[in-house]
């Protein structure tokens, strides 16, 4: 099976978890694209009634084109289920996201969701996080100084570029990727990054996911993460 076939397999399966009347968070990326296509088919054929809360301009445009009613995160009371992709998932169900530069909105939608499901092909599963570079969304103002601080700390930052231009997020911020190789203590690193002025959000998604669907050549596997407190409920 090709990687795209694996992505379609998990995307199609994830779409079957969506029930009539749900408010559904719609992630971003090539795997989610298959899932949104499948939801669009259900809306057209079955008359499935849902509201989609997209995590990027790309996903919003795809959803609207397919006839999925779209609302912004602040226009809904709560999101029942968010289905998103991921760049890397470790053995403890912690994840790295932001390969598509959408992790800020993805994290906002995720923490406002009752349940979170990630859909990935098997290449995304790893014993430890870090071989996928960790994305940071950073405010352009002062980003060179921030870059120098991250470099001095040994975090191997690289500004993300495309066709010789710095990548801009939907909020017109830059992305810095940290080429770490391996992350030994993701919680400690997240704490450090949360404290750095100029970083709007990092791509460590810790204790966020409830269910992961992994696409293997012999079929999809549905994995349940341990039940943990939602990010937003952590005490100050
Ligand atoms: O975090 C993301 C975007 O910011 C994506 O979910 C992640 O990059 C996975 O994308 P793909 O399904 O294309 O591999």
UniProtKB/TrEMBL annotation:
The keyword Isomerase applies. Its EC number is 5.3.1.6. Pfam families: Rib_5-P_isom_A. Keywords: Isomerase. Substrate binds at residues 28-31, 84-87, 97-100, 124. GO terms for molecular function: ribose-5-phosphate isomerase activity. It is an enzyme of class 5 (isomerase). One of its GO terms (cellular component) is cytosol. Pathway: Carbohydrate degradation; pentose phosphate pathway; D-ribose 5-phosphate from D-ribulose 5-phosphate (non-oxidative stage): step 1/1. InterPro entries: NagB/RpiA_transferase-like, Ribose5P_isomerase_typA_subgr, Ribose5P_isomerase_type_A. One of its GO terms (biological process) is pentose-phosphate shunt, non-oxidative branch. It catalyses: aldehydo-D-ribose 5-phosphate = D-ribulose 5-phosphate. The active site is at residue 106. Homodimer. Belongs to the ribose 5-phosphate isomerase family. Catalyzes the reversible conversion of ribose-5-phosphate to ribulose 5-phosphate. This is Ribose-5-phosphate isomerase A.
């Amino acid at each position: 099976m090709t990687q795209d076939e694996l992505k379609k397999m998990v995307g199609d399966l994830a779409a079957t978890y969506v029930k009539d009347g749900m408010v559904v968070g719609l992630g971003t990326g090539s795997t989610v694209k298959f899932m949104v296509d499948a939801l669009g088919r259900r809306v057209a054929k079955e008359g499935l009634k849902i509201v989609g809360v997209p995590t990027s301009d790309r996903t919003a445009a795809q959803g609207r084109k397919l006839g999925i009613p779209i609302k912004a995160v602040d226009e809904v009371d709560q999101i029942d289920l968010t289905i998103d992709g991921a760049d890397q998932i470790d053995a403890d169900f912690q994840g790295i996201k932001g390969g598509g530069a959408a992790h800020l909105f993805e994290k906002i939608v995720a923490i406002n969701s009752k349940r979170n499901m990630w859909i990935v092909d098997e290449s995304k599963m790893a014993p430890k996080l870090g071989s996928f570079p960790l994305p940071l969304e950073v405010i352009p103002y002062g980003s060179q100084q921030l870059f120098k601080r991250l470099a001095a700390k040994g975090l191997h930052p690289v500004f993300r570029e495309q066709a010789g231009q710095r990548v801009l997020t939907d909020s017109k911020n830059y992305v810095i990727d940290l080429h770490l190789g391996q992350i030994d203590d993701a919680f400690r690193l997240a704490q450090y990054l949360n404290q750095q002025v100029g970083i709007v959000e990092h791509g460590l998604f810790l204790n966020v996911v409830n269910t992961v669907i992994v696409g293997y050549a012999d079929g999809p596997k549905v994995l349940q993460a341990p039940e943990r407190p939602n990010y937003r409920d952590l005490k100050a």
